[in-house]
Amino acid sequence: MQNLKNYAKQYAKRGFSVIPTIGKKPLIKFADQPALTPRQIDKFWTRNPYANIALKTDQFFVVDVDRHSDGEDGTVAIKKLSHPEWFNTLCQKTAHGGFQFFFKKPAERITQNIGFLPGVDIKAHPNNYVVVAPSVIDGQAYQWLNRKPMIEPADELIQLIEEKSKPKLSDKQLQTYNQEGMRTRTTELFEQIVNGLGPTGGRNNALAVFVGALLLRNVKTRAVLELARLANSRTEFALSDSEVVATVNSIIKKRIREKGGEVIDG
């Protein structure tokens, strides 16, 4: 029998928020609560030595691949992506033979998506959790398959998750409306968020101009980045997220210099 208390304390020591469970059911209230301290963990598992261990998905997200004989085999959907390099990260085998791939969570970009692919879920809500090794369910133990660090997800994987997370569009027709009045640059900026950055060859410049116009209108930098991401997501051949972030940072630095400020790289 594994010493689950020691495992739980080690997870906490590594910065994870530990949740005791019976099977997969939490034994404590954890939503929007601070993580258990090592002392609390010691006390809880001393009283409940067979409690399983779960980790809150507040700092990471999981691609959860199910394998059930009476349902979808998520490994088929993962293989069809033809990008094994995307999943070169920390991975465990679940008690029922599935796989869970652990990734560092990009700020504000990955959302919960149950049914991301056939047999594959994205567990990412800060108040969600996953059971981890060496917990046991139905007599079978979870098992870490490697000791790799959690990696940053590839931009293409993030874009796929975002695309699959979009709600299904309604087929209702838009109400017609004869618009009158003057169009402004602000009008064009709103429309660019929807229409995207234009064709290949002018995307980077269009993004730079778009970002500069938002900053000129005193839009907060975090909002500027998210609006830039939205506009990029509506572009037929989108830039990578790293290119978007780099461009936004570049224009922010330019504005700081124009105002006589000092650029401090973080």
UniProtKB/TrEMBL annotation:
Pfam families: PriCT_1, Prim-Pol. InterPro entries: DNA_primase/pol_bifunc_N, PriCT_1. It comes from the Bacteria. Residues 8-161 form the DNA primase/polymerase bifunctional N-terminal domain. Residues 192-257 form the Primase C-terminal domain. SMART domains: PriCT_1, Prim-Pol. This is DNA primase. It comes from Ligilactobacillus saerimneri.
